[in-house]
Design goal:
Helices cover about 60% and strands about 0% of the residues. The protein is mostly helical. It has one domain: Orthogonal Bundle (Cytochrome Bc1 Complex, Chain D, domain 2), CATH 1.10.760. Helix 4 crosses helix 5. It is globular and about 55 Å long. Bound molecules: heme C (HEC). Heme C binds next to helix 2 and helix 4.
């Protein structure tokens, strides 16, 4: 049954092509979301219309602030001020979280 094998190879080719074409920061956003759902959700709402803590501001609102940027978010995460705790995250984790939060920024 070559048909089955060919179809599988075709699907694989399409999948690999799609992955290869995806911008690298897509992975970073996914990773940032994973980190946020582990470390931040207890105090922040981390995505629109999802449950989360209300100790800190919701991430969609954080992203929507007009002056907001990845640089500003990374600076905040590297040196947060009370009452937010210093979570001792690494630089790649800041990058991923900042990319994720900025991905929530409304486009219009
Ligand atoms: C123990 C509760 C707590 C946890 C856990 C927490 N935060 Fe916060 N966060 C806060 C509070 C409270 C504030 C508001 C601080 C202020 O207003 O000065 C805040 C503020 C922020 C801000 C600044 C928002 C702004 O207006 O610019 C960012 C960004 C942020 N948090 C990101 C995160 C990320 C990312 C995580 C997970 C890695 C996280 N927080 C985990 C409590 C928390």
């Amino acid at each position: 049954m070559t048909w089955g094998i060919d179809m599988r190879r075709l699907c694989l080719t399409i999948a690999v092509t799609a992955l290869g074409a995806a911008p690298a920061f897509g992975d970073e956003i996914t990773r940032g979301k994973e980190l946020a759902s582990r470390w931040c959700v207890g105090c922040h709402v981390i995505a629109p219309n999802t449950p989360g803590g209300d100790v800190g501001p919701p991430f969609p609102a954080v992203a929507a602030e007009p002056y907001q940027s990845e640089t500003a978010l990374k600076a905040w995460l590297a040196d947060p001020h009370p009452p937010m705790p210093d979570l001792n995250l690494s630089a790649p984790e800041f990058d991923a979280l900042a990319a994720y939060i900025m991905s929530l920024k409304p486009t219009d």
